C-alpha cells in the first residue's frame, strides 16, 4: 500500500507540467482507476485546472443564456421579419431539440470520447448561434435555434462528465455549486442582456455573443484536456446499435408532440381542436412505445430500467423536473410583471431581478461548501423547497402597489431555495450509480431539467394568456386578444391612458397566476426530496479509495 502511494506521488510529479489527463473510461471495472485518476488530476492551484473549469462554466453560461436571452429581443425580431405568427417557435425550437436529444447524448458519452463529443457539441451549438445571428428571415432563425438546441444538450452532459475524473467526489459539491451558479445566473440575466443588445446594438448580438465565449471553451478543452483512454471498446457497428435507434425513433417525436401541444393548446388552437388532441395522443402513444422498447430491448436501451427505477435517480429526476419548471416560470414572468405592472424598461426589469441572482449565488456556495463538509446532500434538498415554496407564494401576492422591499425580499428568499439544491441531483447520480451508468444518469437528470423548463414555460404561457383575456373580455374599447399579444414594452404606448389601469390589473392577475404554478412545483420538490436516499459522498469515496489501494498495491 505504501509503494502505491509513493508511485502515485511520482506520477503526480512527472505530470505536473503536462496537460491534465482525464481518464473517462466508464466500465464498472474502472472505478478504482477513476478514483486514482481524480486524485491525481485534482490540482486546484494549477492554471490548467482552472482554465478547463472556467471553459466548462462559460459553456454552461451561454447555453443557459440562450434559453432566456431571446425573450426581450422578440419584439425587435418580429418587427424586422414581420413574423408575429412564429414567436412561439423561437423559444420552442431550441427547447424541442435540446430536450429530445438529451438521453441520446448519455449513450454518446458512454461509447465515444468525452473530449471530442463535448467539442462536437460546442461546434454544433456555435453553428446554430451563427445561423441565428446572420438569419435573413424567420425560417432561418428557427432552424438555427433548433441546431443550437441540439448542441446545448451535449454541452450540459459533457461538462459534468469532464469534471468527474478531474475532481474527487468529496470535493465536487463546491464545483457543482459553481456549475449551478453559471446556469442560474445566466438564466436570470438573459432578459437583461437581451434588452441591452436590442436597445444598444442589434438583437443579432444575442446570438453572436456565443461565438467568442464558445471559442474560449474550445481552446481550453482542446489544449489543456487530454483523454488518456477510450470508453468501452466495441466495434463501430455495436456503438451505433447502442445508441438505441429504435427507442430514439419513438422518443424524439413524442417529446416534440408534447411540447407543441402545450405551446399551441389554448392559444394558437383550442384545447378541443383536432390538432392539439392529435398531438397529445401522439405523445402518449409514442412515449409508451419508447418505454416498451426500453423494457424488451434492455441491451441497447437509452435508459436502463435499473437506472430509472433506482430510488434516488427516480426522485432526483422528479426534483430536477419540478425545480427547473418552477425557476423558469419565475424567470420568464417576473420581468413581464416589472415591465407591464411597474412600467420598467426591458433592461431595468432585468436589473430588478438581481435579488433572485443574489440569493441563488449565495446559497449555491453555502450548500456546496456545507455538502462537501458534511458529506450529505439530502438535507439541502429538503431545505430548498421550504424556501422556494414560501418565496413563490409571496411572489403570488404581488400587486401593482407592492413596494420594492416586498419584491426584493421575496426574490431573495426564492433564490436562496433554488441555489440550495440546483445541482445536488447530479451529485446523487455519482453517489448511487456505478461508474458505467453515470453518463446515462446525468443525461436523465438533464432531460428532466430541459423537459421541466420547456413544459412549464408553455403551461405558464397558457395560464398567463387565459387569465389576462378573462379579465379584459367584455371591457368596452379593449380587444383582449390583441392586448395579450402585444409586447410588454409596447403596451403603455398602445393602450389609451384611461384603460391602462384595467390592463395593468389584468396583467398582474396573469403574472401571479403563473407564480401559483411555481408554488405547486416547489411543493412537489419537497415530496421528491423526501424520497431520496441518505448517501454520504465521503464514505463512498473512502470505499472507492480502499478499492484503488488494493488494486495498485
Automatic annotation (TrEMBL):
Compartments, record wording: Membrane
UniProt keyword terms in alphabetical order: Membrane, Transmembrane, Transmembrane helix
InterPro entries found in the cross-reference section: MFS, MFS_dom, MFS_trans_sf
CDD domains: MFS_Azr1_MDR_like
GO molecular function, one term: transmembrane transporter activity
Chain ranges passing through the membrane: 49-77, 89-109, 116-136, 142-167, 174-196, 202-225, 246-264, 276-293, 313-334, 346-367, 374-396, 408-429, 441-464, 506-530
GO cellular component: plasma membrane
Membrane topology, from the record: Multi-pass membrane protein
Domain (Major facilitator superfamily (MFS) profile): residue spans on this chain: 52-537
PANTHER family hit by this protein: MAJOR FACILITATOR SUPERFAMILY, MFS AFLATOXIN EFFLUX PUMP
Name of this protein: Putative aflatoxin efflux pump
Species this protein is from: Mollisia scopiformis (Conifer needle endophyte fungus)
Amino acid at each position: 500500500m505504501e509503494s502505491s502511494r509513493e508511485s502515485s506521488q511520482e506520477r503526480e510529479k512527472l505530470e505536473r507540467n503536462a496537460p491534465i489527463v482525464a481518464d473517462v473510461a466508464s466500465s464498472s471495472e474502472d472505478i478504482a482507476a477513476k478514483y486514482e485518476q481524480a486524485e491525481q488530476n485534482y490540482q486546484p492551484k494549477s492554471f490548467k485546472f482552472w482554465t478547463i473549469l472556467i471553459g466548462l462554466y462559460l459553456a454552461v453560461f451561454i447555453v443557459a443564456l440562450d434559453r432566456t436571452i431571446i425573450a426581450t429581443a422578440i419584439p425587435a425580431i418580429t418587427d424586422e421579419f414581420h413574423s408575429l405568427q412564429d414567436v412561439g417557435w423561437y423559444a420552442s425550437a431550441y427547447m424541442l431539440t435540446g430536450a429530445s436529444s438529451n438521453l441520446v447524448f448519455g449513450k454518446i458519452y458512454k461509447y465515444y470520447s468525452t473530449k471530442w463529443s463535448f467539442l462536437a457539441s460546442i461546434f454544433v451549438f456555435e453553428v446554430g448561434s451563427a445561423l441565428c445571428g446572420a438569419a435573413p428571415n424567420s425560417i432561418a432563425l428557427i432552424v438555427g435555434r433548433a441546431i443550437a438546441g441540439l448542441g446545448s444538450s451535449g454541452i450540459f452532459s459533457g461538462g459534468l462528465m469532464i469534471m468527474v475524473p478531474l475532481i474527487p467526489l468529496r470535493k465536487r459539491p463546491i464545483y457543482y455549486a459553481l456549475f449551478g451558479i453559471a446556469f442560474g445566473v445566466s438564466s436570470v440575466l438573459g432578459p437583461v442582456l437581451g434588452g441591452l443588445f436590442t436597445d444598444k446594438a442589434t438583437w443579432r448580438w444575442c446570438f453572436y455573443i456565443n461565438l467568442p465565449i464558445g471559442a474560449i471553451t474550445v481552446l481550453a478543452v482542446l489544449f489543456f484536456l487530454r483523454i488518456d483512454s477510450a470508453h468501452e471498446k466495441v466495434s463501430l457497428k455495436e456503438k451505433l446499435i447502442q445508441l438505441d435507434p429504435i427507442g430514439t425513433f419513438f422518443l424524439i417525436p413524442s417529446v416534440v408532440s408534447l411540447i407543441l401541444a402545450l405551446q399551441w393548446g389554448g392559444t394558437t388552437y383550442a384545447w378541443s381542436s383536432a390538432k392539439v388532441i392529435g398531438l397529445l395522443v401522439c405523445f402518449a402513444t409514442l412515449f409508451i412505445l419508447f418505454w416498451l422498447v426500453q423494457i424488451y430491448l434492455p441491451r441497447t436501451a437509452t435508459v436502463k430500467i435499473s437506472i430509472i427505477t433506482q430510488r434516488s435517480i427516480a426522485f432526483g429526476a422528479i426534483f430536477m423536473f419540478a425545480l427547473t419548471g418552477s425557476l423558469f416560470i419565475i424567470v420568464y414572468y417576473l420581468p413581464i410583471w416589472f415591465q407591464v405592472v411597474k412600467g420598467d424598461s426591458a433592461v431595468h426589469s432585468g436589473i430588478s431581478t438581481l435579488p433572485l441572482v443574489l440569493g441563488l449565488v449565495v446559497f449555491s456556495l453555502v450548500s456546496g461548501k456545507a455538502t462537501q463538509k458534511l458529506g450529505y446532500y439530502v438535507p439541502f434538498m429538503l431545505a430548498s423547497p421550504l424556501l422556494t415554496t414560501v418565496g413563490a407564494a409571496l411572489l403570488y401576492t404581488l400587486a401593482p402597489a407592492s413596494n420594492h422591499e416586498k419584491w426584493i425580499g421575496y426574490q431573495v428568499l426564492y433564490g436562496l431555495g433554488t441555489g440550495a439544491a440546483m445541482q445536488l441531483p447530479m451529485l446523487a447520480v455519482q453517489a448511487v450509480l456505478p461508474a458505467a451508468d453515470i453518463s446515462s444518469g446525468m443525461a436523465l437528470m438533464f432531460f428532466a431539467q430541459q423537459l421541466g423548463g420547456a413544459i412549464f414555460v408553455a403551461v405558464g404561457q397558457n395560464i398567463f394568456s387565459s387569465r389576462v383575456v378573462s379579465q379584459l373580455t367584455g371591457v368596452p374599447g379593449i380587444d383582449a386578444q390583441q392586448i395579450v399579444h402585444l409586447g410588454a414594452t409596447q403596451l403603455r404606448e398602445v393602450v389609451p391612458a384611461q384603460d391602462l389601469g384595467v390592463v395593468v390589473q389584468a396583467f398582474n392577475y396573469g403574472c401571479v397566476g403563473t407564480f401559483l404554478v411555481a408554488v405547486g412545483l416547489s411543493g412537489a420538490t419537497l415530496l421528491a426530496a423526501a424520497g431520496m436516499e441518505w448517501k454520504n459522498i465521503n464514505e463512498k469515496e473512502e470505499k472507492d479509495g480502499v478499492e484503488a489501494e488494493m488494486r495498485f498495491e
